[in-house]
Amino acid sequence: MSIDPIRMLILGGTAEARLLAARLEEDMRFSPLTSLAGVTRKPSKIAGEVRIGGFGGVEGLREFASREHMTLLVDATHPFAVQISAHAAQAGAQAGIPVLRLERPPWDRRAGDDWREVADIDEAVRIIPQGAHVLVTVGRQEVAPFLERDDIYVVARMIEPPVVQVLDHAELLLARPPFTLKQEKALMEEKRITVLVAKNSGGDATFAKIEAARELGLPVIMIARPEKSSLTTASGVDEMMVLIEQHFF
Ligand code: NAP
Q: What domains sit in the chain, N to C, each tagged with a CATH number?
């Protein structure tokens, strides 16, 4: 007698979510379905089933998870994606489906780092010194307030173009991580960058910019992670697989 594989909903949009889907998909006991918001036009390939687009709030997510017979929800969204994590926690509680979080640890300040830690995007925009050449790496959805400052020069790097118009005092670089230390130093030197703005995303794929700033003696305006509700959390895919094993077997 064959046993149906365990259905699991992964809320994705991160490298970790992709790695987890690959691990679960190769294991006959599980059947993962990854959900993406649909903000990236050409997302990287994901193993297993994929669906794209918002659910329509907590209620939509709860209904989807119940209808699709999900037995576990894994919130593997980006540390800065606050709303979907809140929805996952609420929808799981309402539907009686357990929710686990997969979240990479934040970067820690090391010797030689010159970080100005700020609470959010607005504070980051406010403290950039006049006349600065800023490398802004906050993503296409949050770049707009930086472009409104016409007393600085903004080099805005992101994967896909923003919806806002890029003006004379700014330029756009479209590129997909990972980046090497050599590439990041070359970019900062070529563009005469004096300040880097980054979210404390953690992980390896975009860490080279932090190292490059350290080696070049540049300050980093580091945007702290927003608060999320507390859930049982794994910091990597191996740890998440242990939590999943413990949960089901
Ligand atoms: P958000 O503000 O937390 O969520 C906004 C809305 O987008 C949610 O209410 C939900 O719509 C929909 N949504 C978000 N993630 C979804 C998912 N995985 N599947 C289905 N719907 C989703 O999210 P965000 O900060 O805009 O980020 C959007 C996506 O990009 C996330 O999946 C995240 O993992 C990824 N990402 C974000 C960042 C970042 O810096 N924020 C960086 C890299 C990747 P409904 O209410 O209609 O369900």
A: 6-104+227-248 (3.40.50.720), 115-223 (3.40.50.720)
Report pLDDT digits (tens) over 14-69: 999 999 999 999 999 999 999 999 988 888 899 999 999 999 999 999 999 999 99
Task: Decide: 161 in ligand 1 pocket, CB within 6 A.
Answer: no
How far apart CA 208 and CA 178 sit, in angstroms, is 8
Ligand 1 atom 16: residue of nearest CA: 37
Which residues are registered as beta bridge partners of 7? 31
Cα separation, 235 vs 193, whole angstroms: 32
Q: What is the pLDDT of residues 68-114, one digit of tens each?
A: 999 999 999 999 999 999 999 999 999 999 999 999 999 999 999 99
| Distance (Å, whole) CA 196 – CA 221 | 6
Cα(81) to centroid of ligand 1, in Å? 5
Q: Which residue intervals of 106-161 are DSSP H helices?
A: 121-127, 144-147
Span 128-152, pLDDT tens digits: 999 999 999 999 999 999 999 999 9
User: Contact at 8 Å (CB) between 183 and 210?
Assistant: no
What's the rounded Cα separation, in Å, for the pair 144 and 161?
12
- Closest residue CA from atom 13 of ligand 1: 37
Residue whose pair of structure tokens reads 């490298």 in the numeric block: 15
Q: Which two tokens stand for residue 172?
A: 């756009």
Q: Which of 10, 11, 40, 84 to mutate to test the pocket of ligand 1 (most atoms within 8 A of CB)?
A: 84
